[in-house]
Design a protein that fits this description.
Layout: E1 2-12, E2 22-28, E3 48-51, H1 52-60, E4 66-70, H2 80-89, E5 93-98, E6 112-116, E7 141-146, H3 149-158, E8 171-175, H4 182-192, E9 197-199, H5 202-206
Parallel strand pairs: 2-4, 4-5, 5-6, 6-7, 7-8, 8-9
Antiparallel strand pairs: 1-2, 1-3
Length: 214
């Protein structure tokens, strides 16, 4: 079972409800979407084939129990669910960031699926899989990347469609970096009295001049 891997690195978790914690990242190659604001375009194609045991051995060397599988889009690869299952069985707390266009239940529900709901400014919001809303559990997280006021209104309207089992503090509002000022998004959240979590991409604050390995 081989997966095409763009990079494996140890960094600070910059997003999600785990923001600020040390975390190992496995960035897989390939994505089925082309969001306008994508900051990991190098992962569309770059990478090397690695068997699952080799990935796990490389991850083990960092000595960190929190691990995120990201991309690209992890679910475009056939053996991502097998990698997740192996990591869970080895004792890792596993997160998986996914763009929300593919069935998230392909992955073990013990994994916290951090699912994007694409907003209009991404250019890909028509690709959202509405069935995923019913697949979310209290262990998952939902992320809205907001680029403008229309995106915010779209996200606000989508909140009513999320399952009641998903705590609102696991719903994340994030500004498109370099496009929407975070203080503007914060004002919209406060004025709308939304109880979601405003997040800032910490890795871009800590390492503003790096876009790989962070």
């Amino acid at each position: 079972m081989n997966l095409k891997v763009s990079e494996i690195f140890y960094s600070i978790q910059g997003e999600s409800v785990h923001a600020g914690l040390p975390c190992v990242f496995v960035r897989l190659t390939g994505c089925n979407l082309r969001c306008r604001y994508c900051d990991t375009k190098y992962a569309y194609h770059e990478g090397i084939a690695m068997p699952v045991p080799q990935i796990i051995e490389q991850v083990r060397q960092f000595g960190c129990d929190l691990l995120e599988i990201t991309g690209g889009e992890p679910l475009v690869q056939e053996y991502t669910p097998a990698l997740v299952e192996k990591l869970l069985g080895t004792g890792y707390q596993v997160l998986m960031e996914t763009n929300g266009s593919l069935n998230i239940d392909r992955v073990d529900r013990r994994c916290s699926r951090i699912m994007d709901i694409k907003c209009p400014s991404s250019g890909e919001h028509a690709k959202n899989d509405p069935g995923n809303l019913n697949r979310l559990t209290a262990n998952d997280q939902v992320k809205f990347v907001i680029g403008d006021r229309d995106d915010f209104i779209f996200a606000e309207q989508m909140l009513s469609r999320l399952p009641a089992s998903l705590p609102l503090d696991r719903v994340l509002f994030s500004a498109v970096f370099g496009r929407l000022p975070v203080d503007q998004l914060a004002r919209w959240v406060l004025d709308a009295q939304i109880s979601a979590r405003l997040q800032v991409q910490l890795h871009k604050v800590i390492w503003p001049d790096r876009n790989r390995g962070v």
